[in-house]
Write a structure and sequence with these properties.
By secondary structure, the chain is an alpha+beta fold. The chain contains three helices and ten strands. Strand 6 and strand 7 form a beta hairpin. Helix content is 14%, strand content 34%. Strands 5-4-6-7 form a four-stranded antiparallel β-sheet. Strands 1-9-10 form a three-stranded antiparallel β-sheet.
Length: 158
Amino acid sequence: MINIGIYHKERLLAEGPPLLLKLAPMDPRSLMQGDYMALNYQISRDWRKLLPDSPPHDGFLVLNLDENHIGSFAGLYEQTRPLEQNQLRIRYRLRDGRLRIGSNAFFFQEGTAKKYRQGAYGEFRVGDEGESLLIALRDEKLNLLGGSASSKPAVTWP
């Protein structure tokens, strides 16, 4: 079972379409805690304006992707309506009045926090079933954060 899970995640990393989600502003005093960064996404902060009054507690959002793979809210996923070419679906969960999308933390090597302070986007890979994996952070200009000179970004951004 564990190996199947690992295989599934590795396949998602290799083949899943890229998605960037805008990070929401956070209190800088609680931004860095040890060796991880707490994350919040702009779309999660605006959900009350974007979703119906009583959305299901679990479901899928449809996101439009621009030319840089930056996702924006397009609606709730309906099985009867196929996705357009520039869209993908991503799983959400509504818990304690907060919309949860993807990971709420980005882990990094201890002592490297400075590299990630300019984080403006979370970079994900998204699977066919709406599951998502956070793989990196990017700055406002979509530059990969935290990579060394020898590391290559998962996607080449303009």
